[in-house]
Design brief:
heterodimer; A: 111 residues; mainly beta; five-stranded antiparallel β-sheet; B: 109 residues; globular
Amino acid sequence: KQEVTQIPAALSVPEGENLVLNCSFTDSAIYNLQWFRQDPGKGLTSLLLIQSSQREQTSGRLNASLDKSSGRSTLYIAASQPGDSATYLCAVPPNDYKLSFGAGTTVTVRA
Amino acid sequence: NAGVTQTPKFQVLKTGQSMTLQCAQDMNHNSMYWYRQDPGMGLRLIYYSASEGTTDKGEVPNGYNVSRLNKREFSLRLESAAPSQTSVYFCASSDYEQYFGPGTRLTVT
């Protein structure tokens, strides 16, 4: 069974600092890896999807890397803003249909 | 383009009552999913439908049934609600990248 771990569970940084969020998974036979953002009381918003053949994916201030061989992905958020405060989850599908989620990293960006 | 929509947004049930959670997507996706999210347990897959006409159990299917009514709609039914089913329920759809609905907050007393 795919196990997904996110460290740290919570992170608090001052505005402007870069954020580094980690995700590790036990089974490297993945199709892709997806990063989500969840605001309190809301649904999940997809941020980035990295295909298994890619090593990284970028969208604006967000950059996600993927190292399948070591079972790791890292989400970088540059120049953090208070609006970046949310819970960030990573998820991997061991097959085409089922996503295994990490527990998330809750980020607080202090103004 | 509404994406994934869910109804209702909130629901309170008494133990033993039944209800159906509705989900619809307008992205022409083949696959649809139902998850529940509980504090300390993360997101867990209840049922999924890889394509119209098929459904399969996920990690926590007991106490639930699903219907893939057509390509757009995927409903989740609680036949006899129990307090352990108090949770936030999310529907999602995908052809590759998963997109989530806003959730239904269900309380069973």
